[in-house]
Amino acid sequence: MRSPDLLPYVLCVCVCGGAWAAELFAESELFVTCEPCIMCAGALLHAGIGKVYFGCSNERFGGCGSVLRLHDQSFPGLAGYPCVSGLFVEEAIQLLKQFYLDGNPNGIKSKHTTTHTRTRADRTRHAHDTQLPTPSDH
Ligand SMILES: [Zn+2]
Fold first, then answer.
1. HSE (CB half, 13 Å, CA atoms) of 28?
2. CA 42 / ligand 1 centre spacing (Å)
3. What is the distance between the alpha carbons of residues 96 and 48, in angstroms, rounded to a whole number?
4. How many whole angstroms from 16 Cα to the centroid of ligand 1?
5. Which of 68, 73, 122, 124 is close enough to 118 for a disulfide, judged by CB 3.0 to 4.6 Å?
6. Bigger pLDDT: 134 vs 89
7. How many angstroms separate the alpha carbon of residue 43 from the centre of ligand 1?
């Protein structure tokens, strides 16, 4: 699975899968680069995932230890799941950095992308096009 957003897939299998999905999840182990967010960690709890392994922590939204510890929770009818963190941390961080630098090849093209990638020459040309003074005009 290449999408960074796990939640829709988990929910779809849970809703559509019934009993066979519960058995499938209980026997499954999930390997991900980054700690599942709170929503995904909750979905995994409801799905009854067998075990989760991840690389880097998700300090802002992590649901498996960084912000909340949903994997450790036991609610009526739901059992927590074991989590192993810190696997290949540096490699995971590099993969995520590269993903966000390259952009999502399956995502919608953003108009903002060109704003962030303009070069100094582009900015200077834009300044001349709009007749604004540049620092070299003084
Ligand atoms: Zn998530």
1. 16
2. 9
3. 27
4. 20
5. 122
6. 89
7. 9
